[in-house]
């Protein structure tokens, strides 16, 4: 059991019978009336984010989750296969459980979050940035770096990322997996 005073980003709680993680919270003490806590909660089963307001001091059930590092092996149909980095045992997750799966390439380490009570996988989190090779894009023009113009580029995983005009085919770029946006060019 915890109260709203124990809230912090990343805390896993049980809310309406489902596991949620606190993405953001704000303690509000209005001039008139009782204090309350505004939160953004992310459902660990389906990935949806909802806003919710708790009265200050209310008791909340916390849940224990474990994060384990796995290495992505391959995708087969609607399943994605992973290997535990410590025990080398393999597991698979449904593709819809993996956010940003179009940026996932073989060999990348990911964190899989498990519900500690029954070893049920809840979510799969990619690293914040991945380095990907551009397999196709229109050629860039020399001197075309002054504007913020972007062009589509296909990376080795098949995803399409918008990149600046000066980036060319065959180069490696760093992509933010949270947004799917281009971050920077990687020098070899």
| Annotation field: number of helices | 0
CATH structural class of the largest domain: Mainly Beta
Structural class: mainly beta
Number of strands: 16
- Per the CATH scheme, the topology name of the largest domain is SH3 type barrels
Regions with pLDDT < 50 over 5+ consecutive residues? none
CATH architecture of the largest domain: Roll
Please write the string of helix (H) and strand (E) elements.
Answer: EEEEEEEEEEEEEEEE
What is the percent of helical residues?
under 10%
Entry keywords:
OB fold (Dihydrolipoamide Acetyltransferase, E2P); 5-stranded antiparallel beta sheet; SH3 type barrels; mainly beta; 188 residues
Walk me through the topology:
Blueprint: E1 2-3, E2 12-15, E3 18-28, E4 36-43, E5 49-55, E6 59-62, E7 65-76, E8 79-84, E9 90-94, E10 109-115, E11 120-125, E12 129-137, E13 150-155, E14 160-164, E15 172-176, E16 181-186
Structural write-up:
- The protein is 0% helix and 55% strand.
- The protein contains no helices and 16 strands.
- The chain has strands at residues 2-3, 12-15, 18-28, 36-43, 49-55, 59-62, 65-76, 79-84, 90-94, 109-115, 120-125, 129-137, 150-155, 160-164, 172-176, 181-186.
- The N and C termini lie far apart (50 Å).
- The chain folds into three domains: 2-62, SH3 type barrels (Roll), CATH 2.30.30; 65-125, Nucleic acid-binding proteins (OB fold (Dihydrolipoamide Acetyltransferase, E2P)); 129-186, Beta Barrel (OB fold (Dihydrolipoamide Acetyltransferase, E2P)).
- It has 188 residues and is mainly β.
- The mean pLDDT is 88.
- The strands form three sheets. Strands 1-6-2-3-4-5 form a six-stranded antiparallel beta sheet, with no helix packed on it. It has a five-stranded antiparallel beta sheet with strand order 9-8-7-10-11, with no helix packed on it. It has a five-stranded antiparallel beta sheet with strand order 14-13-12-15-16, with no helix packed on it.
């Amino acid at each position: 059991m915890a109260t709203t005073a124990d809230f912090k980003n990343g805390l896993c709680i049980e809310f309406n019978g489902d596991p949620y993680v606190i993405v953001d919270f704000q303690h509000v003490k209005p001039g008139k009336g009782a204090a309350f806590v505004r939160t953004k909660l992310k459902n660990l089963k389906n990935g949806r984010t909802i806003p919710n307001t708790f009265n200050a001091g209310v008791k909340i059930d916390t849940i224990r989750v474990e994060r384990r590092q796995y290495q992505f092996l391959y995708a087969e149909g609607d399943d994605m296969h992973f290997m535990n980095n410590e025990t080398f045992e393999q597991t698979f997750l449904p593709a819809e459980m993996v956010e940003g799966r179009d940026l996932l390439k073989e060999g990348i380490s990911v964190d899989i979050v498990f519900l500690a009570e029954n070893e049920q996988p809840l979510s799969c989190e990619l690293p914040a940035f991945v380095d990907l090779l551009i397999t196709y894009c229109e050629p860039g023009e020399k001197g075309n770096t002054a504007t913020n113009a972007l062009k589509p580029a296909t990376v080795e995983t098949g995803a399409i990322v918008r990149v600046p005009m000066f980036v060319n085919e065959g180069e490696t770029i760093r992509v933010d997996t949270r947004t799917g946006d281009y971050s920077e060019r990687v020098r070899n």
